[in-house]
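Lecture notes, unit on protein representations.

Consider one protein chain, 191 amino acids long.
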Amino acid sequence: MLVVKLGGSLGRDPRLKSWLKFLSRPGWRKVVVPGGGAFADQVRESQSRWRFDDRTAHRMAILAMQQYGWMLAGIQPALIPVTGAAAVRSRLRYHRPVLWLPDFDELERARIPNRWSVTSDSLAAWLARRLNADGVVLVKAAPIVTQRIDRLQRQGIVDAAFHRWLGDERCCRVFSVADLPRFKDWIRRSI
């Protein structure tokens, strides 16, 4: 099983449809995690303007992920939107692609910090750990020239808290939105 996080920045890229089409195919077990995209950018802008606290901003960013998730489900109806890790686990038994919509309360019970250093990247890693997934794939708009998470963090491509939530036992790959053929090859070799 893989957790595949589709970056919110893909929301403006026409190649998003090709990724969704491939990810919606049955066969291997997968959970799609939405980024926040333009919806989260609006939260950042509003927080900067109005100076509200990080907990409020974090909750709004979770809603941004949900909005982007619903958009993904609207584009690709074969993705089944599900809230909560237990519901994801249950739905995966049917070998249909699941789209995770994060839940405030579940994340608070898991003590996920309310700060911008913990983005949908870290939440995808947390979910992978919670589901005991084999790995996490991050799909980004930026070109990817290395698989070293520390370098990607320094470049601002992967969030600062990601490795903490991923752990050392889980496989992680990062692909650019332009790398769908490479991703397909990697999947064929991996499953």
